[in-house]
UniProtKB/TrEMBL annotation:
InterPro entries: NTP_transferase_dom (IPR005835), Nucleotide-diphossugar_trans (IPR029044)
Domain of life: Eukaryota
Domain Nucleotidyl transferase intervals: 24-286
Species of the source: Mortierella isabellina (Filamentous fungus)
PANTHER family: GLUCOSE-1-PHOSPHATE THYMIDYLTRANSFERASE (PTHR42883), THYMIDYLYLTRANSFERASE (PTHR42883:SF2)
Protein name, as recorded: Nucleotidyl transferase domain-containing protein
Source taxonomy: Eukaryota, Fungi, Fungi incertae sedis, Mucoromycota, Mucoromycotina
Pfam families: NTP_transferase
Length: 288
């Protein structure tokens, strides 16, 4: 499943142009409370070495960390490790610095949002804005990747980047979910050209005909980034609670009526939430 406007005659040329102004922001400021609870309750002791480790840094397959998969894939597609940035928290900052040293990511590309616990977290959307400002990315197109986001092996990053270049729009990934999963994820409504026309956060299956979910893998057009500030300012003005800006999908729902958001179809994703899903992900990537 792909939504691609126009035909790419020279993919390498388009790709070179596409990555010229793309910077990457990995979201690593979450506290992974469900995973940590599972690890503490695990009676086997097999995974005790993972206690305290953020999900983004969980070892996976042949790589030292989940996000190292992305660093390598990005590099293969023309985006060097020097263009990769991570926004994390105070509790995990030192762990990400060690990871950066191992993977040729500049230490200055790792920043803490200043929080120390899940109770004091800023929320996902404020962390995106924090990363954009701290790393000076407001003049770039910014690829935001969730620290626990993984795709199946058939994901084509080169085609994703080439598709972005063809449209004056943001670009997000989309995959189909079952009726049983609809209420667990944000659901996008998409027109025949693959453009988002609606977004419903964790709806009941009867509330929408769409079954397209959107993982945290957003390529924001540089011209759309000012809407992050605008969205959060509106949240502050109405004294919105954390639930209004803690999920990245909340911003996507605000974004699409104000700036075009195109979709790129993928076959599926791997969601690392608790220990069971991490074990499944590890088994999947072990086959790579």
């Amino acid at each position: 499943m792909r939504w691609v406007i126009g035909q790419v005659l020279d993919l390498k040329l388009v790709l070179d142009m596409a990555v010229e102004n793309v910077k990457v922001l990995i979201m690593g400021a979450g506290y992974g409370t469900r995973l940590q609870k599972d690890l503490l309750n695990d009676k086997t002791g097999k995974y005790s070495h993972l206690i305290g480790l953020p999900k983004a840094l969980l070892p996976l397959g042949s790589q030292d960390a989940l996000i190292t998969h992305w660093v390598h894939l990005l590099a293969k597609n023309g985006i060097p490790s020097s263009s990769v940035h991570v926004i994390t928290n105070d509790a995990c900052h030192s762990s990400f610095i060690k990871w950066a040293k191992r993977n040729n990511v500049p230490e200055n590309n790792i920043a803490s949002d200043g929080t120390t616990s899940n109770e004091t977290r800023l929320g996902a959307v404020p962390d995106i804005l924090e990363g954009v400002k701290r790393f000076g990315l407001s003049g770039d197109n910014v690829l935001v990747i969730g620290g626990d986001t993984l795709f199946l092996h058939d994901f084509d990053l080169s085609q994703f980047l080439a598709t972005f270049k063809q449209n004056e729009a943001c670009l997000v990934t989309a995959y189909k979910v079952s009726d049983e999963t609809v209420h667990k994820v944000g659901i996008m409504e998409i027109n025949k050209d693959g453009r988002i026309t609606g977004f419903v956060e964790k709806p009941q299956p009867t509330e929408t005909d769409s079954r397209f979910a959107c993982p945290c893998f957003y390529l924001f057009h540089q011209k759309s980034l000012s809407l992050l500030d605008q969205f959060l300012e509106e949240c502050r003005s109405r004294q919105a609670g954390l639930e209004e800006f803690d999920a990245t999908g909340k911003f996507l729902a605000y974004l699409y009526p104000r700036f075009a958001v195109q979709t790129f179809g993928i076959s599926g994703r791997i969601d690392v939430g608790g220990l069971a899903s991490y074990i499944e992900a590890a088994q999947y990537f072990q086959k790579q």
